[in-house]
């Protein structure tokens, strides 16, 4: 589908599609083993972790549903964080490295995209910390996949 002049693209389309998110997460997780705060968190990481997270975020941002079509779910993503005891220091390091990586791989730098992207990173990482706390149990229902949009700015300025 070609974008018309007044049609607002999804965040995934604006960012460059699944390939751009795959590049983002490949680069991010390639840097993690050398990061003093994050390396222990991801020690023993599944070699396909970057691929799964890229598919999840692409879908959340309005792209293809490859994550759910491959059997993934929001409950499964929550489950990956259970019992991990993530700290605020680790959360902040994750966000900081993700933003640096977004710049390195050329994710859009316009204020509207970055506001939505940072909003999602803050929301998602804070939920990950909450879900990683002692005593948190796996969801017993099937929470819907998150859907993230442009938010208050309303999309890219197309003027």
Automatic annotation (TrEMBL):
Keywords on record: Heme, Iron, Metal-binding, Transport
Region annotated Disordered, chain positions: 138-159
CDD domains associated with the record: TrHb2_O-like
Gene3D superfamilies per UniProt: Globins (1.10.490.10)
Protein name per UniProt: Hemoglobin
Source species: Caulobacter rhizosphaerae
